Every structure is written in structure tokens, then in C-alpha cells.
């Protein structure tokens, strides 16, 4: 029961950060978002920092579920297969996981001023950097570590651009897939 309540509060924290930004994150706001009695959030997470860490851990859990396990690449990955995986993940982060993605960017900026938060973000994000490196190695990259880091950074930029609807706005599915393919092609050069 307590772990269900903690997950509910972590989810409500993510929603609050996404909708209200860091300035709107209070225990009371999370209580409202979770539909809980006032004081419930502070019972489980006494400090604002504890709320941030709970949200970050929950985001990592949900992101991992989005990614799932890498398919067995059989020692060699085809760019089309990797493009499909990457485009589906990016589409998920832009649609069904949009609030989580917005909250991630808010927390990323907040972590500039909070070294403990930065350390946790780096810890949770390491799984995705390793996955990018593994995918690129399976696709034949001669520098999978460096290019994997660059790929993750570029995907972050693509997602940010699409969330903020910078410039011409949102890509349709075909444009998003083409952009993912371009990023992979560049990483594999």
C-alpha cells in the first residue's frame, strides 16, 4: 500500500512539474494533483528534494519500461531496425509520455544548481547512454561510446525541439522517422 501511495505521489509530482514548472512544485500542489488529503505528500516525502528524487526515480522506471529490453541484435543491427526503435521511443516521449518528458527538462535545468540531483540524473541516464553505445556497436560503429553520447545529445535536442514546437513546429511520423534515420546515419559514419 505504501509503495502504491509513493508511486501515486511520484506520478503527481511529475505532472505538477510538467504543468506548473519548478516554481509550482509544492507538497500541497502534489496533494491536489494526486487527489490526496492535504499533508499526505509531506508524510511520505518530507522535503522538496525528496519529492524531486522520487519523481526522478519514477521517471527512470517509466522510461526503462518505454524502452524495454533491446531486441537480440544477433551481433549485427540493421539501420532500419534501429531507426524504427528510435522513432517509436521518440514518438512515445512526445505523446503518451509528454508530461514526463517536460518534467525531465525542468529537472535537467534544476540540476544545474543542485549537484545531488545532477548526480542522480547522471546515474539514471547512464542506462540510456549504454544502450545507445550498444546499438551503435552492433551496427558497426568504430567509436560507439563517443558517437553514442553524441546520439543521445542529438535525440535530446530533437525531442526538445518537438516539445517546444520550435520553428516550423511538429514533425509528422514520416518526418520524425527520417530525422531519426539521419541521426543514426550520422552516428554510424
Description of the structure:
The chain is mainly α and 189 residues long. The chain has a single domain, classed as Tetracycline Repressor, domain 2. The protein has helices at 2-20, 27-34, 40-44, 48-67, 79-94, 98-111, 115-138, 144-164, 173-188. It is elongated, with a radius of gyration of 18 Å. The termini are far apart. The model has no long low-confidence stretch (mean pLDDT 90).
Portion in strands = under 5%
Topology pattern, helix = H, strand = E:
HHHHHHHHH
| Radius of gyration, whole Å | 18 Å
Unreliable runs: none
Return the CATH class: Mainly Alpha
Main β-sheet description? none
Overall pLDDT confidence? 90
Number of domains in the coordinates?
1
Principal-axis shape equals: elongated
Give the helix level as a range of percent. over 70%
The CATH architecture assignment turns out to be: Orthogonal Bundle
Question: What is the number of E strands?
Answer: 0
Multimeric status of the protein: single chain
Classify the secondary structure makeup into a structural class: mainly alpha
Please name the defining characteristics of this protein.
189 residues, mainly alpha, Tetracycline Repressor, domain 2, 9 helices
Amino acid at each position: 500500500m505504501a509503495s502504491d501511495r509513493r508511486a501515486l505521489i511520484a506520478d503527481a509530482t511529475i505532472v505538477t512539474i510538467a504543468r506548473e514548472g519548478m516554481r509550482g512544485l509544492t507538497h500541497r500542489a502534489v496533494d491536489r494533483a494526486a487527489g490526496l488529503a492535504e499533508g499526505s505528500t509531506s508524510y511520505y516525502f518530507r522535503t522538496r528534494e525528496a519529492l524531486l528524487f522520487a519523481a526522478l526515480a519514477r521517471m527512470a522506471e517509466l522510461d526503462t519500461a518505454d524502452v524495454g529490453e533491446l531486441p537480440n541484435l544477433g551481433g549485427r543491427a540493421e539501420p532500419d531496425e534501429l531507426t524504427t526503435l528510435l522513432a517509436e521511443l521518440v514518438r512515445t516521449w512526445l505523446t503518451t509520455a509528454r508530461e514526463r518528458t517536460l518534467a525531465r527538462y525542468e529537472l535537467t535545468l534544476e540540476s544545474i544548481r543542485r549537484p545531488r540531483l545532477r548526480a542522480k540524473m547522471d546515474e539514471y541516464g547512464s542506462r540510456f547512454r549504454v544502450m545507445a553505445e550498444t546499438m551503435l556497436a552492433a551496427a558497426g560503429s568504430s567509436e560507439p561510446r563517443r558517437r553514442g553520447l553524441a546520439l543521445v545529445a542529438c535525440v535530446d535536442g530533437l525531442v526538445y525541439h518537438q516539445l517546444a514546437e520550435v520553428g516550423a513546429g511538429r514533425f509528422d511520423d514520416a518526418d520524425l522517422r527520417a530525422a531519426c534515420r539521419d541521426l543514426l546515419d550520422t552516428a554510424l559514419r
